[in-house]
Every structure is written in structure tokens, then in C-alpha cells.
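Late entry, evening session. Most of the bench is empty. Finally got around to the prediction I had been postponing all week. Sequence below, unchanged from the version circulated by S.P.
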Amino acid sequence: MDKEITVARIAKGKGPFYNVQLSEGEDLRVSEDILVRYRLLKGQEISEQTIEEIRKSGGYDYGLQMAMNYLSYQLRTEKEIRTYLKDKEIQRDDRDKIVNKLKELTLIDDLIYGESYVRTQVRISDKGPQTITQQLKLKGLKPEQIEQALSLYPKEAQIEIAHRTAEKSLKKIHGKSQKETLQKVRQTLMQKGFSSDIISIAMEMLEFEKDEEEEYAVLVQQADKLWRRHARLEASKRNQKIKQSLFQKGYSFDDIQRYLDEKEVSDD
């Protein structure tokens, strides 16, 4: 015969849950549905079998309510829901049941999530398809779902966003050679996740006119620093180091030699 246990106290908990304290000291966290279903009242005697049923139902009900609340703020992927429920210490079987229930209610749909995510990123961000793909992978979407979602990011939009990003990047770069400046813009687009084809098109659209005198003025600033850094070296070694450093930064050999010639004259 089952041992009878008494409901010692029932108190309202957080959200739509109640805390049911049993005479033996255990606390059960239950939903209002379970409270009504088992007609739980203070002083009521219940069997261990009933308590075990309530425990099993309680985990599912609690987890479902928590998941619904988690979904109320924004769309979530199946992976995000499973991770959230695991963090809330919901058992594996209950997590599976909850996810299936949310799918039945169409509250979880990874494809819909992916399409919404892509539309948002195209509208508000400067991310390319490769970066978006990586982010959707981390959120648990399957390759075919990602591919279908990315159909909402056509080539024309990629070119427009890449071009806009390149222009913004260009305005932030100062004191560099033309070659180094364009390399940095290209690197920015690569880091944003655009393909080489899109980057090439965006770079061709970039309005960037080389100002010979301005470029030489920047060269002089950088070369003067190098000259001071290597001042203790003999002339040939000093000049060689300056040439190597400036050439790597994208300055022309003629401009570098011009600087060295002018420097030699001014130092005489």
C-alpha cells in the first residue's frame, strides 16, 4: 500500500507556477493546470504514485511555460530552445516533448527563423553571405535551410551593401599609400563575409582618385620616421631598410628614390 503524504502548504510561485510543499519536506513546482487536475489542496493526502506522476508532468509543464516565455521576446531556433531548456535543468525526455509541442504549434521553425534573420541582416547590417552562413550554422540550421534562406540575399543586394561598406571603410583610412588603402578596404570586405567576385565589383565601383602629391607627402611622413629609427646604421643599410619598408607599404620605387635623393641633398 502506498504511503500517504500530506500537502502542507501551497504558495504562488514565479509566473504561472505554484510551490506545493509536502509534509515530508519536498517542494513541487507545478502549473495551475496540474493544481486543478489533481485537485491539490492544503491538508490533502496524496500517494507516492500520484506524487511521481506530478513530478513527471511538472517538468514538462514548467519547461513548456519557460520555453513559451523565452519565445515571447523573439524568434528562436530549435537549438536555442534545447540549450535554454537544458540550462533550466529540464530533463532530456521533457525537452524532446516540449520541442515537438512547439513545432506542432508552429512556434519553432528553423527555416522561417533563417529567412527572418537574413531579411533583418540585409536591412540593418553590413554582413556578407559567408558571415551570415556561419552565424546560422551556430544557431543550428541545416545547410539546405541556410541555402534557402540566403536566396533572400540576391547578388544585387550584396553588391550594394559591399559597395556601401567599402566607401565607409575608405573614409576611415588615413595616412596610407593607395595600394595599402585599397588592400585594407578589400580586407574589410573579406572579414564581413563577401565573396571575392562581389568584392571585385565593389572595388571597381569605388571612387578613389590617387593624388600624387598627397601620396608623396604621406610617404615623407613615414619615411622620416624610418630615417630616424635607422639613423645609426651606415647609409647603404639605412636606405635599404627604408626602401624595403616603404615598398611593402605600396609606395612606388620612383617616389621612394625621390625621397632618398632629396634627403641626401638636404643633409649635405
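Two things to note before I forget:
The two ends are 111 Å apart (CA to CA).
The beta strands are 4-12, 17-22, 27-31, 45-47.
Will write this up properly tomorrow.
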